[in-house]
Design brief:
Quinone Oxidoreductase, Chain A, domain 1, 2 domains, 10 helices, 7-stranded mixed sheet, globular, Rossmann fold, alpha/beta
Amino acid sequence: MKAVVVHEYGGPEVLKYEEVPRPEPKEDQILVRVMAAGVNPVDALIRSGMFAKYEKDVFPIIPGADIAGVIDKVGSKITKFEAGDPVFAYVSLKGGGGYAEYALGTERDTAAKPKSLSYVEAAAVPIVALTAWQALVDTAKLAAGQTVLIHGGSGGVGSFAIQIGKARGAKVIATASTANQDLLKELGADVAIDYTKQKFEDVAKDVDVVLDSVGEDTLARSYGVVKRGGFIVSLVARPERAGLDKHGIRGAALSVEPNSDELAQIGKLIDQKKIKVIVSQTFPLSEATKAQEQVATGHTRGKVVLKVADEPK
């Protein structure tokens, strides 16, 4: 099969498009014929060696953890799926990544593809939607009638977080640049803040929850807008105990986990038209380097997806 492979840590140029053996599923694994693969910032962090000190003998690496495709074969212990099922998944990087014509998943990380989505759209969902869900629902316990401030509302996680917040019955305040103010409104934000023109703390006050995907100064300025007893979830830094204690609030850093049940719940919201998926650009698998360079700008609207195969008719 064709795949994009990393043989050494480095910049986007270390991504090599080449022929590799097709994986075989173990008894608890699912082999998926990949139609599309999502591209995420973490893919570049892994490629550049950010986690190298925790890993030994990792090469070759096939990057990518978001896939959508059709099940080709299942192991003997698989009971939820069978060959021919359309699925999407957040797969383990250790089991062989998503930038390939075939990838391995498990029942824990795979769910039925939402019927209303193309494979390209479905591949844009898993990691970012699960991140938003686990931040707002599992960690911050966002409830109806509460107010949430979402930093970076036009990006991958932010675009899902706005819609999950609205589906939970919350008031949503979101930040983005001038060019993305229309997108924030389209996604359902009640208040859209242009961070290039105004300070979010002049608009957002006494919020129940903050979702931070920016860190540094943005995180530091966020403590003061949360009401006592409220919650800050950061995707990029650990909230400081001193800042939390000073304002009487709670905080956590989030690391997303595969979860097929939550992915299925998100899929239902998508099919109910409560969540829309924004894909701004697609690239063929052979141009994974260009796709990662686009994501590295930090200004992707929605998601970038690799188109691996033509959609089945």
